[in-house]
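2024-03-11 09:14:02 INFO receiving multi-entity request
2024-03-11 09:14:02 INFO entity count = two
2024-03-11 09:14:03 INFO echoing inputs for audit
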Amino acid sequence: MSIKIIVCAKQVPDPEGPPASYEVNSEARKVTPKGIPPVINPFDQNALEAAIRIKEADGSKITLLSIGNNISRTVILKAVASGADEYLLVDGPELDPAYLDSQATAFLLASSVKKIGEYDLILCGQQASDTNAGQVGLGLGQILGIPSISLAWKVEVSDGRVIVERALPDGYETMEASLPALVTVSSLLGDLRYPNIQAIRTAKSIPHTILSPADLDEDLGRLGLLETITLTVPSRKRRCIKFEAKIPEEAGHWLAEKLIEEKIL
Amino acid sequence: MERHDFKTVKNVLVLAEINEDGSIPNIILQLLGLGKDLASHFGERLYVIIIGKDISCASRELSRYGIDEIFSADDERYSEYNPDIYLPVLERVCKNIHPRLLLSGHTSICQDLLPRLAFALNAGLVTDCVDIKVTEGELSFTRPVYGGNVLATQRVRSTIAIATVRIGVGKPPAPSTVTGKITSLAPAFPVETHLKITGKTLVDQKDCPLGEALVVVSGGKGMGGKEGFQMLLEIARLLGGAVGATRPPCDLGWAPPSCQVGITGKVVAPDLYIAVGISGSTQHLSGMGDSRKIVAINKDPEANIFNVSDFGLVGDWKQILPPFMARLKDLVGNGR
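2024-03-11 09:21:47 INFO inference complete, emitting structure
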């Protein structure tokens, strides 16, 4: 049985970028990443990979959905080329992620999902690598009134049900729900595959829709429950007492003695 | 969605979880300290809700920690966490008592349950808080963003605020002989459940769980393989601690995924964190940066981990760890 899958993807600054590149603009209450290229949130990439694995098994159709401001077409097309069949972007300055909290984002995604129409399964990353809140996926499920399962590392579809293995602190459990359903995906599921050259070439001609925030019929002024009051750059720096021994054995002894001497052990 | 009107809110409610053996996790004791401080600030009461099966002992134990009232939902059907089953009772308690603030640990269960609750109540939720304060009569919540490179302080616009809090934030209160009131809650169950748990596989947890450990010995890419982690396990056992890892060893199968320390794995704040063959990526540092003392062992003298450590050893762990263990055994054996 082939199904319709929506994958929600957020554009974020590359989380592997150097710490020094985050510039805090206290006035605007905004963080500006300097010189870090945008990428699809790595967890959303895991969600897309989950969708592609289902598609491989049963020929399902994948729609990639992204909302934001200045969404890079290059970034989207690269993701789409990995295996999506169509995409919907909602793009506009009002959707700058700096000013959207999880609640606002989830409501805007819910409206976007309604624009797409029919679906059986929605996949989201477990959290975004910039805000790390981990609320949007489960919130979207709640708004749409469909069952949601979080932290999947394996997602399968069979007989109108989604069967998920989800990570626990000390193992994993298998959880099932009937479709339509929403699943948030953990990084443990595995990295998004690289698109092949042919797919990258044809990605531009993949069916797509681009909407503006006004098309969503949501009153942005009424959304949002959190307000950022300050942003600061924390210092993790500690004064390190270093021991550079010529003889490694001495280093090992020194550490053991130091830990006892300083009453750390 | 049905909306509940929280016109007036009052008091602080803590969602308590208990360990498998019925004991109270450190993070919950810390939350009770934090909750009490915040409640006192407003001249209000501290409430606790606990959901589970056979939890009367745990409730009595909890009642010694300065709580005004404990709401206990004790039922067979609460024996394992299922959001479908847990959400209704928590939602009902919030609607009945209208707390100003609901606090929980940033634990696996609460990361799943509280977003559901927040959207059900249309309440603002701040996850992974490293600080909660009252400033100018209002609650403010601080949390790391951008992989811990930036701290954001936020306010919640809804009348009821919800927060999940990181380990190590509040100070556990001293137990008292005065005990709080325990009220049994009638279970609230959904008419039908949509989520079904069909199986569970647990890894052997005979060693100390990572989140609760006072000593964590962690390895990174520099461990080179599974064998290295065996040595870390020996050291961890010697110190009564747990083994951690950065993301690459977990991805490569050198260490189980449950060992991962970092913003995507577990957040730890032990008394001693020993980082072996770890370069010090932001994603890892934001998961252990609040440890009391940090020791780094790395071949590369320029590794970033040394900038955030208290003690640093430059060299090959293969040559440093065996004499470290031997000396430690000597010292511990000498009637310390």
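2024-03-11 09:21:48 INFO post-check: Chain A is about 25% helix and 30% strand.
2024-03-11 09:21:48 INFO post-check: Chain A has a mean pLDDT of 93.
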